[in-house]
């Protein structure tokens, strides 16, 4: 067993009395159905510590087009746990869409825990992976808006574990999952089973909904020349059987032709029948009216009277007629009774109740449907829901999916070429196709949303945001967190700077051309590195730039493109307030602070400075409405509530 992973029994020696008691309680009383991993037996993630994370702008690695005064998009270099801790202090409750493509825990040394690759033979491999993700997902949860959503890519092998973990972190918020076909054929044929799918898990807060797609008007026609205009046929049946809903099992008659239509015993009608209700109420008119009033929709008789039931035309020779019950039973036995048109399953069987009703009736083929007129709903409400299937780019939609909107994505191998097209080399292993991420964000985002990817890798999510903004003139922002992936063999490696940021820089500036047109998307980004300080050292080691960047991220959702060096610094401006940072307080800064409200047309100041109490008293004496907070508040991830 590797030295870095102690055996379970040996690890108990290092636990305190409190930890041992907690472990015992968990084993004896707290185990429940669901996910369990050996949190107390594994080495704790070294990223979990009590230091303070502060952002530092790196101007030479940022991208600042001409005229850009602030950065709305962020690329954060460093451990994503530290990046998430920073964002919890600046963006709590502000991120509406999170997409991540975490390591898949394949055993092929595809991820690092405590500075070491986790291999297939690691005894605690799955527990380490779950703990690693658990700590990061907890932080991500706090960043989401009240209608926010998180989408997580995962392979088939680890889907079950991750889904249980997501249930733990986001209880009651599972929306579902999408299935993405990654390739056309598998390469492992030893068991004649082709692994060609991956998944995208979707967990959302209560107010979230996908955007859907406007209903196709071409599906609305008017074959019967209805004077109310075009209509679309809707199913009359529900997914309930005769046994489950006996009261919605009844025959329907077309009043124009006199033809009858049997009910499917495996899928009864959606709507109640007034005739059935009257029979059940045994002539009690008060009970009948109460039952009718309790219905949430019209009865079948009312729909027929309103000409909202479409009875398809049929040839008279196709109409069935049985003069005696013996004739009917003989036809059913020979398989020549009424059938469902497509499935060819019998609608009448010898064991069904009231079979003699059909003797002497003209029974029509085909199935009636309910008319939904185009004018019945405002066009804005006619949205096709998103299908859980992500098909290929050229894959046709089946007949059963006409009322759904299905995403389309290129196969997985295309993504490598997409990066090569921008950067000129295969700079990142196993990226996701741009079409996949772009399609997901197109459905999940609104034009003004902030999108977070804290496993940003090659920056595909950032490019998807830029392209969507270029297409619909949206104002989406991205926050990408990526590590350097430097190691002993490659100490100078910097994936975040040289792949993620460089890719987006080239996308913004325009890369290549197609038919002579530059593929320019526009945009900018701030490149941030993370400085981690011991709380005891903040006063000595933290800089005004640290505090200014923190406050700008928190209150302006942006980073100033060029750090101001004067004191006081104007960090952010609201409708009636100005946020100001003072690294020191002297006569000159006091004079400038007093003049700021009238100079900038605001009614109050929010000031972060040393000696907040005395400064607050001074400004009040000089007629300035101000809230003054300690400069340490900003540095310690604490904020004054002022906006």
TrEMBL record:
Q: Where is this chain compositionally biased, Basic and acidic residues type? A: 214-230
Q: Where is the composition biased (Polar residues)?
A: 234-243
Record-listed E.C. numbers: 2.1.1.72
What does it catalyze?
a 2'-deoxyadenosine in DNA + S-adenosyl-L-methionine = an N(6)-methyl-2'-deoxyadenosine in DNA + S-adenosyl-L-homocysteine + H(+)
Does the keyword Methyltransferase feature in the UniProt annotation? Answer: yes
One Pfam short name: N6_N4_Mtase
UniProt-listed PROSITE patterns: N6_MTASE
Please tell me whether the keyword Coiled coil is annotated for this protein.
no
Q: Which residues form the DNA methylase N-4/N-6 domain?
A: 95-471
Alphabetical GO biological process terms? methylation
Q: What are this entry's molecular-function GO terms?
A: DNA binding; N-methyltransferase activity; site-specific DNA-methyltransferase (adenine-specific) activity
For region Disordered, the annotated ranges are 214-243
Q: Which UniProt keywords apply?
A: Methyltransferase, Plasmid, S-adenosyl-L-methionine, Transferase
Family under the similarity heading: Belongs to the N(4)/N(6)-methyltransferase family.
For this entry, the protein name equals site-specific DNA-methyltransferase (adenine-specific)
Q: What species does this protein belong to?
A: Simplicispira suum
